[in-house]
TrEMBL record:
PANTHER family: CULLIN (PTHR11932). Belongs to the cullin family. PROSITE patterns: CULLIN_2 (PS50069). This is Cullin family profile domain-containing protein. It comes from Cryoendolithus antarcticus.
Length: 818
């Protein structure tokens, strides 16, 4: 629209006359009767007024007109819809005293009317803005006044929303907020509401500001509505959360909480403002998750119940909920760790209880154990069975929580760390874990891998490595493993030497070369021993000794510092007996022993052979006069210990009907009393190998007992194996365990000293605290060193002048002495 200023410059205008025309037109616009108006003419009139510098007057007149119109016409229509169902409130609780249906219907009518008033006002003011465009562009900009449209929006805010509906009543804005909040409460309770009415009124609040400056952060929606919405929502969800913790189960609670979060997001998009979505979701998360997570987890149907009953989907819901509010999942992590520890403790307690059950009588041999298995009794030592079950149960526990971690916890790294820590604590809290894990491997190496495929064998070995990985006292495990490996190799109990070596290779990868050094040396000794045996046989053949009665010898030459030979003895007392007594061999045996010693010394000068008779076995032929059918003699091939062989050979030259006393047998052989008693139990008490007759007959072997050849012995088997009591790998007794731990602690002392010297040699001068920390760090891969032991070893090194205290240092420090 182009207006030429020519002809207006010298003509005065009548402001009141022109305003009268404009005011009448504005009234027509507000009454929706503007079809006959000429907007070009109206624009010209407004243009004239502004051109004559009367824009200030025009601006005020328009503002006054709008203020009167809103107060006299619009406001009254809106207030009239504040019917009793909307205004009847309880004076104490503030809640409505009418039914939900009445309140809902009245609220919708009010919202519809207010929406209409706002939309009409916007349409009318858009039309007025077209008429007053020149005033906005010239006067409002020059005088820094809000545009007439903005001014009219402020008038709507002040005249409609910020004035009390009636005397002694809240302002309409507060009533509007309460009505919208009531409608939202109904929606949360499952009622169907007119969301478009709420959205229209929310849009109105987003279009209005606290002041005429229209600062973005001062929208009425933010300052008047959103704050109350978030506060009442917090109250609602706080109450709902507490109620659901009392009345529902944990799975239902999780599903409900997730649904509520999604609902609030949808509500913000469809009904309120999207800018509120993250805020209300945070409120719901705080009230239903963050503040309730501990209670949710501890419910009777909580995490422990879910774990016990494999409710993986529900566990996943708990994980998802806490992940929303805590990246560390603190409460869930604590709960899972506690459950793992409790389950681990239950497994340990069950193993301890099983170990306490009565075991086989002291005189029972392996043959008796086999007899008992047929009648339902345990085949092997119950304590050993408990040890094996402990390892299997611990592995099952790990598998169970690994499955939970993958399926319910989305393979979360922090929970994996927590689970690993808990598994390690559960294993290391049991003082016998090192021994039990070694026994688990021992059992699998002897029979567990029988008839298994390569993949199954590898899986079994990997399970053993998993247990070993969690173990803290790896040096103590090494002690037990060497004992058990020693017996497997020397007694030919291992199913596969290649699998044994495969296990050593896995240990080397996991724990390093130093851990497996002695284990590998044991296999090397076995290989060299086989070569020595073959070499000795060739040596004998070259001598031309064709004596058919000559004893055939198979030997194992073992490095004394590598092999735990105490595994074949019965503790400190037996060690002492073994060291003090020189076994007496028959001439035929002694000749072979002497021959091999001479052969060995020729090959290896400077070495000393010590014969470990308690560790050997023998194959002998024995003829019993009445063993065959019809009382005819019968010969049996007997496999027995070397000690048992020496005992049986004594009865070869004994006259018929003669007997030997316990003391006589001991004097003739020099076998340690404890070993002699065990072997005599096998030869004179065990039913299947009763080659000797004991008088008096009893289970126990006592001094004064006499033994004679059992010419009436009968067996349906040609080959007979004599079992020796406690010959297998079994759980140590309390006395044996204390001895093992003492030796291990002594060994740790040397390792600690070596570590301290190595550190100080590199660092030269180091503070006391730093030395302790570095020592603990370096040794933690082998065992958890005791701080007091480290301190004692430091003092010992000072006394032996490896270290000295630095007197002038500000903190206690040490210096390495070259």
């Amino acid at each position: 629209m182009a207006i030429h200023q020519q002809g207006l410059a010298n003509n005065d205008i009548d402001f009141n006359e022109i305003w009268g025309v404009l005011e009448k037109a504005f009234l027509e616009i507000h009454t929706k009767n503007a079809s006959a108006l000429s907007f070009e003419e109206l624009y010209r009139n407004a243009y004239k007024i502004v051109l004559k510098k009367k824009g200030d007057e025009l601006y005020k007149r328009v503002a006054d007109f709008e203020e009167r119109w809103l107060a006299m016409h619009v406001r009254e229509r809106v207030v009239n819809l504040l019917t009793p169902p909307l205004m009847m409130l309880d004076s104490v609780s503030g809640r409505s005293l009418t039914t939900t249906a009445e309140k809902k219907d009245s609220g919708e009518k009010f919202l519809r009317e207010l929406r209409g008033a706002w939309e009409d006002h916007q349409v009318c003011m858009s039309m007025l803005t077209d008429v007053l465009m020149y005033m906005d562009r010239v006067y409002c900009q020059d005088s820094r006044q809000p545009s007439i449209f903005a001014k009219s929006m402020g008038l709507f805010r002040d005249q409609i929303l910020r004035k009390p509906a009636r005397a002694e009543m809240p302002i309409l804005l507060d009533i509007l907020t309460r009505i919208i909040l009531d409608q939202i409460r109904m929606d949360r309770d499952g009622e169907t509401i007119q969301t478009h009415l709420i959205k229209a009124n929310i849009s109105m609040l987003e279009g209005l500001y606290d002041s005429d400056q229209e600062v973005e952060d001062e929208k009425l929606y933010l300052t008047a509505f959103e704050t109350d919405f978030l506060a009442t929502s917090a109250d609602f969800y706080r109450s709902e959360g507490e109620r659901m913790l009392r009345e529902s189960d944990a799975g239902t609670y999780c599903t409900h909480a997730k649904r509520r979060i999604d609902e609030e997001g949808d509500r913000c998009r469809s009904t309120l403002s999207e800018s509120t979505a993250p805020k209300i979701q945070r409120v719901v998360e705080d009230e239903l998750i963050r503040h309730k997570m501990k209670g949710l987890i501890e419910m009777d149907s909580g995490v422990e119940y879910m774990v016990d009953n494999d409710k993986l989907q529900e566990l996943g819901h708990v994980f998802d909920l806490e992940a929303r509010v805590d990246v560390k999942k603190t409460e869930l992590t604590k709960a899972i760790q506690k459950i793992v520890m409790e389950m681990g403790a239950n497994i340990t307690n069950a193993a301890v209880a099983a170990s306490a059950t009565p075991t086989a009588p002291p005189g029972a041999t392996e043959e008796q154990a086999e007899d008992k298995s047929k009648t339902g009794a345990a085949k092997v030592n119950q304590v050993t069975v408990a040890a094996l079950k402990w390892s299997e149960d611990i592995l099952a526990l790990k598998d169970r929580f690994d499955n939970i971690w993958r399926q319910a916890f989305q393979s979360d790294q922090m929970l994996q760390i927590a689970l690993n820590r808990s598994m390690a604590d559960a294993i290391n809290s049991f003082s016998r874990s090192s021994e039990y894990i070694s026994l688990f491997i021992d059992d699998n190496m002897k029979k567990g891998i029988r008839n298994k495929t390569d993949a199954e064998v590898d899986s079994t070995l990997e399970k053993a490595i998993i247990l070993l990985r969690y173990l803290q006292d790896k040096d103590l495990f090494e002690t037990y493993y060497k004992k058990h490996l020693c017996k497997r190799l020397l007694l030919n109990k291992s199913q596969s030497i290649s699998v044994e070596k495969q296990m050593i290779s896995k240990m080397k990868i996991e724990l390093g070369n130093s851990f497996t050094l002695k284990l590998e040396a044991m296999f090397k000794d076995m290989t060299l021993s086989e070569e020595l045996t073959n070499g000795y046989k060739s040596y004998v053949n070259k001598l031309g000794d064709a004596d058919r009665t000559r004893v055939d010898l198979g030997i194992n030459v073992l490095t004394s510092m590598t092999w735990p030979l105490e595994a074949f003895r019965g503790g400190a007392a037996a060690d002492e007996d073994q060291g003090n007594l020189q076994i007496i061999f028959p001439a035929a045996i002694d000749r072979v022993k002497t021959g091999f010693t001479r052969f060995y010394n020729e090959k290896h000068s400077g070495r000393k052979l010590t014969w470990q008779t308690n560790m050997g076995d023998a194959d002998i032929k024995a003829t019993f006069a009445k063993a065959g059918k019809d009382g005819k003699p019968r010969t049996h091939d007997i496999n027995c210990s070397t000690y048992a062989m020496l005992i049986l050979l004594l009865f070869n030259d004994l006259p018929a009907g003669a007997s030997l006393a316990f003391e006589e047998i001991q004097a003739a052989t020099n076998i340690p009393p404890s070993d002699l008693a065990r072997n005599l139990q096998s030869l004179a008490v065990a039913p299947k190998t009763r080659f000797l007759v004991k008088e008096p007959m009893s289970r126990e072997i006592n001094p004064g007992d006499r033994f004679s050849y059992n010419e009436n012995f009968k067996s349906q088997f040609v080959k007979i194996k004599v079992g020796v009591v406690s010959a297998g790998n079994k759980v140590e007794g309390d006395r044996e365990r204390k001895e093992t731990e003492k030796k291990n602690n002594d060994s740790r002392g040397y390792v600690i000293e070596a570590c301290v010297v190595r550190i100080m040699k590199q660092r030269k001068i180091l503070a006391h605290t730093a030395l302790l920390n570095e020592t603990i760090t370096q040794l933690s891969a082998q065992f958890k060193p005791d701080v007091n032991m480290i301190k004692k070893k430091i003092e010992s090194l000072i006394e032996r002048e490896y270290l000295e205290r630095v007197e002038e240092a500000a903190v206690p420090s040490y210096r390495y002495l070259a």
